[in-house]
Amino acid sequence: DPVDMSPVSLELGHTERPVATTFSHSGHLIATAGMDYTIRLWNGRAGDPLLALRSGNQSPVMGLAFTPDDRTLVSLDGEGVITAWRTRSELDRDGTRRASSP
Fold first, then answer.
1. Phi and psi dihedrals of 12, rounded to 5?
2. Which residues contact 51 (CB under 8 A, 6 or more apart)?
3. How far apart (Å, rounded) are the C-alpha atoms in residues 102 and 92?
4. pLDDT of 13-65, one tens digit each?
5. Where do the H-state alpha helices sit in 15-91?
6. Would you state the pLDDT for residue 72?
7. How confident is the model at residue 101 (pLDDT cuts 50, 70, 90)?
8. What pLDDT, on the 0 to 100 scale, is given for residue 3?
9. Would the CA dihedral through 89, 95, 98, 99 be positive or negative?
10. How many Å apart are CA 85 and CA 102, to the nearest integer?
11. I need a surface site. Which of 11, 29, 37, 44 has the fewest CB within 10 A?
């Protein structure tokens, strides 16, 4: 199957400046983090919002990464606190299911 390289535009929805973005290895999910202490998960194919998480940390999330199997999203806040957010293991291949909090 040829890869669709059409640009996807996201209205990020953060109330403060976004500071981190990461793509899942499969390309089905995009995660963003902002100075508003939220992490937002997006459908990587359509750009639709899937979920907004409040980090609960004392400082905004500054870094994000998916594990190689895309089942966990790892966040790093400005004070060095690392949090692992599990995505559902049965996550649909098109990225339509939602992540769960730790």
1. -65, -30
2. 40, 41, 98, 99
3. 19
4. 777 888 899 999 998 899 999 888 889 898 888 888 888 888 777 788 999 99
5. none
6. 92
7. very low
8. 65
9. positive
10. 5
11. 11
CB 77 within 8 A of CB 62: yes
DSSP letter assigned to residue 50: E
Which among 5, 7, 31, 10 has a CA at the least distance from the CA of 20?
A: 31
Identify whether the C-beta of residue 42 lies closer than 8 Å to the C-beta of residue 52.
no
pLDDT band at 6 (very low <50, low <70, confident <90, very high): low
What are 35's two structure tokens? 């100075």
Q: Distance between CA atoms of 67 and 9, rounded to whole angstroms?
A: 24
Buried b (16+ CB within 10 A) or exposed e, 17-49: ebbbebbbeeebbbbbbbbbbbbbbbbbbeeee
Contact 58, 79 (CB under 8 A): yes
Cα separation, 102 vs 84, in Å, equals 7
